[in-house]
Amino acid sequence: MIEGIVNFFVVLAGLALAAGVFAALFFTSAPYGRHLRRGWGPLIANRFSWILMEAPSALVFAACFAFGNVPRNLPILFFFALWELHYIHRAFIYPFTLRDGRKKMPIAVMLMGLAFNLGNAYANGRYLFTFSGGYAQRWLLDPRFLIGVTLFLAGLIINR
Fold it and tell me: Phi, psi (5° rounding) for residue 104?
């Protein structure tokens, strides 16, 4: 039960952080890509930084799946597959589609992305595969699921 409380506070911290970042980005731009500027510390190769900050999402979520206790039915497998598809693409395909392989990113930005991704993967993975109790087969026809999958697929197509 203690881990359930920890999970709850990880989610709350993520929401609070999101609100703060949302507000801050009205006054400044994130210092990477075309907005890269001095003053954010040492830099790291852009492709390598994407791998370092995105790959742990796929790994942590997979670990939560492996050690979770909910039944491995179709809805759970579908959630797992969508997450892994997204983060494997972000970690191991997207970085190699970047046009200029010489670009850099501040290590601080990469570490912030890594911290977010670790918390996000943990909170979602532990909830789905441990705390949720699982999902019935009928969930695949639930409007929330169908709308979510439609949005996911639209994003996948648009961002190709």
Answer: -125, 165
